[in-house]
Amino acid sequence: MDLKQPLSFSEQVKKLKEHHVIIDDDVTAEEVLRRVNYYKLTGYTLQFRQSSDTSDLAGEHNFEEICQLYLFDQELRSLLRKYLEIVEIYSKTQIANAFALEKRTTPPYDQHYDERNYYNKDGFRHIMVNFKREQGYYSDSLIVKHHVESYGGKMPLWVMVELMSFSSVSKLYNAMYHTSKQIIAKRFSIGEKTLANHLHCLSVLRNKCSHAARLMNINYYPPAKLSSKFLRDNPSVNNASLFAYLCVLKWRLPTNGDKIALRKELFDLFDKYLGFIDLSLMGFPLNYKNIF
After folding, report:
1. Which of 21, 51, 119, 242 has the smallest CB count inside 10 Å?
2. Which long-range contacts (CB under 8 A, 24 or more apart) does 59-62 make?
3. For the stretch 89-104, what's the b/e string if a residue is b when 16 or more beta carbons lie within 10 angstroms of its beta carbon?
4. How far apart are CA 46 and CA 52, in angstroms?
5. Mind listing the pLDDT tens digit for each residue in 132-170?
6. What residue numbers bound the domain in which 36 lies?
7. How many CB atoms lie within 10 A of CB 235?
8. d(CA 291, CA 248)
9. Is residue 135 part of a domain?
10. For residue 132, with 0-12 CB atoms within 10 Å meaning exposed, 13-18 middle and 19 or more buried, which class applies?
11. Do residues 149 and 255 both lie within one domain?
12. Residue 174: half-sphere exposure toward Cβ, Cα within 13 Å
């Protein structure tokens, strides 16, 4: 089967009109499409389509409405990146410090490189292959040069995590033995399985935010691990939703000040786009303010 024929920007405007998008100013629409990929922008029409097997819209929806949804999603990603960074730095700090204190007990203090200290040895080897790649991204940094010249390229774990992605650190935690996971999880005041899930969820959310992926109107994997009490009290919460992931983000922030600031900025953003966004498409229940 042939792939779709490429279209010029003006042809893309015409195609949107054919799918029943109301466009009052073709020039402005074309300028937007020069900046934002047609395929990305039309992702924000999914909620308006007649059915899942057509791009035609049901009812009247104008180009400005779609652009506002795109801008909201863009601002949401920017907002979340700030708080995900806080959680990432805190999580890396706790994991590296706790594991190093547990395992690095005798010279040369490089036990975190020993696969015998990990339950999932294949997983650990895969992480180290990835770390070599990540280390290569920073080959011109003083940190890497110093450890190559002075320590044959080996680094303390608290240095390694500075070069590792959040996803890699999440996988490193998952590769550890049960006892190590427990020690670390106590620092977060949650169980080891919950921490493993939350690290995974937040690394997924971070990747979506970093790569400009659409956050609304999608299901998230893995589903967030929510406590039995939380689910009993809030049966309408879908743990595969953005709302569930945002609850996890809030819970994992290290200070009450961070949590309050996230809540305020998030609700202010909702107010800004009040006439355009449908919070139910992000899994927000009617009583989301009380829950969050």
Report:
1. 51
2. 60/20, 60/22, 61/20, 61/21, 61/22, 62/21, 62/22, 62/23, 62/24
3. ebbbebbbebbbebbb
4. 8
5. 898 888 888 898 888 888 888 899 999 999 999 999 999
6. 19-70
7. 8
8. 12
9. yes
10. exposed
11. yes
12. 18
Beta strands in the chain (DSSP E): 21-22, 61-62
Count Cα neighbours of 39 within 13 Å in the Cβ-side half-sphere. 5
Q: Do 149 and 52 belong together in one domain?
A: no
Phi, psi (deg, nearest 5) at residue 231:
-70, -35
The answer to whether the beta carbons of residues 177 and 117 sit under 8 Å apart is: yes
Task: Looking at the structure, tell me whether residues 47 and 93 fall in a common domain.
Answer: no
In order, the DSSP letters of 235-275 are TT--TTSHHHHHHHHHHHSSSHHHHHHHHHHHHHHHHHTTT
Residue 195 CA to residue 205 CA, distance in Å, equals 15
Cβ of 209: how many Cβ atoms within 10 Å? 20
Q: What's the token pair of residue 266?
A: 């998030």
Phi, psi torsion values for 165, nearest 5 degrees: -70, 165
Q: Is the overall model pTM greater than 0.90, yes or no?
A: yes
| Total of domains in the chain | 2
